Amino acid sequence: MKSKIIKELPDLVKHKVISEEIALKIRNYYDSKPTATTNHLFTIFGVLGSLLVGLGIILILAHNWDHFSRPLKTCFAFLPLIIGQIIVAYTILKKKNNTWKETAGLFLFLTIGSSIAMVSQIYNIPGNLNTYVLTWILLGMPLIYLLDSHSVALLHISFSTFYVLHFGYKYNSGINESWIYILLMVWMLPFYLKLLKYQPEGNLTSLYNWLFPLSFTLTLGTFFKSNDDLVYLSYMSLFGVFYGLGKLSILDNRKLRQNGYLIIGSLGIIIMLLLTSYNWRWDYNIDGMHLVEVYLTLFLIICNVLLLVFLHLKQRLQRFNMFHYIFLIYAILFFIGSSYNIAITILINILVLMLGVITIKIGTEQHHFGILNYGLVIITALIVCRFFDTDMSYVVRGLLFVCVGLGFFITNNIMAKRKRAIRELES
Amino acid sequence: MKSIHLFFLFVILALVQLWVPAQMIFERETAIREGVAYKFKTKPIDPSDPFKGKYIYLNYQNNAVKTLDTDWVVNSPIYVTFSTDSLGFGKVEEVSKSKPEHADYLKTKVTMYNARTKEVGFSFPFKEFYMNENKAYEAELAHRKAHRDTLSSHVTHALIYFYKGTGVLDNVFIDDIPIVDYIEK
Q1: How far is CA A116 from CA A134, A196, A309, B17, in A?
Q2: Considering only residues 57 to 96 of chain B, which have any Cβ-Cβ distance to chain A shorter than 8 Å?
């Protein structure tokens, strides 16, 4: 960005857009500014290097050097770990910069895994990947705070998600892993909240804004062992929470692409509605639910309600937005669903249609092509779903598609014209 | 927080990081030093682990036994004691829910209970023998070849030390020759 502006300066002076004096001031301003980009690059390359070296060590040790004696192999198991610890100790004592912290933290995190794996290999300690991964995570997680390290934090989230995905969805698995996962995520909370407070617009903060909802979306299902039906309501509530969180000022005031909660929440709500827009889906059996599953769903619904109240108090619900209330409608429909199967299926279809229309309205009001087309995609998705399960004639279905297709052209065209008109007025 | 405080916290963490693999080693070394060794007939096959490398997976024959107890619960702990048969191979002596008095027993988990046959099944937690990545598959082939050539005279067995519930797989042999040496022959 800086070099781009400086490159443009002679051209701007030549065309008399700015004076020589202003050009000099701009150049001096950028020259006096500390160059953060170089540091970022160092950190990125340091982290990449550390990642590659760490993974390389794991692979080299996995080769199994069987000509070495057991004590020698044991020394090799500890060597990378001790080197990693010395580097981290040096980084802390000498108050090294972020590049050092990220690189050393990541290297030590990886060597913890390589060390335990090597000892397991030397003594033929069998698989049990869940204990191995959990031990690895637990021994590495204090580094997040000791070094203020993002690379370790990102690995912590990824490993914790892998841990619960790998074991939580297995046949006959318990929910212990899921609870441990929650505790591991809670460990991250102070770190994340600090980031949201002090660097709300940072790229890394945006990454966490995506990673957390993604991780929770992937792992929520591991809590459900007895009754699959309640999963729908639970997921709908979870997406409702994401949507509500995404509307908090700390996230909603950012660019849309930085707000993973809002996008995942909104998409999730639409997908859940579409999934349950089929008639047979509402033939639920609400008997035999585990208490944990019921309490978890209730907890998510309560979170939704609390978020709604908070948003209302903060006056962020002034414009009616149906996405906020879908969880409540869905919860009511869920419990009466099995008695009024067809009526509720129709209602769900109407809800999706309404959400599509409301999204188009928001898109046109904000002159936002992305939101406008998202609304059209919602309606198209609904029509595609009905395409496969209704007895409508081919002509009617065909006409519907043509109409929505024309809708895409016309609305986008109107929007483009409006935007052009506004730009002309402004100039 | 001052860097000296951070440093002391890190020293504690580093000690815990070292203690975890160290106590794994200590437990196994004690079992090898103090424990009693048994030989078990086994059949190796060759899979791999992304972190620990190539290993041969050992199938054991005696992992279910008749019992008078009827209330075995899957995944609950089970204590297994062993004795030696006339050919010198280990066999299950008895199973119980309480810790035996002598030290050479294995603590493991119940995998199944068949009420009809009154058999309780358990897992042997020493099924993986880690080998050099170029030798694990050869070990599986060597075992297969030895059995094809000689019918029953060649035996593949694992040597396992038991001490206070821990079982440590020390080595795998074909015809009493360590498997690594056997495939290099």
Answers
A1: 11, 35, 48, 9
A2: none
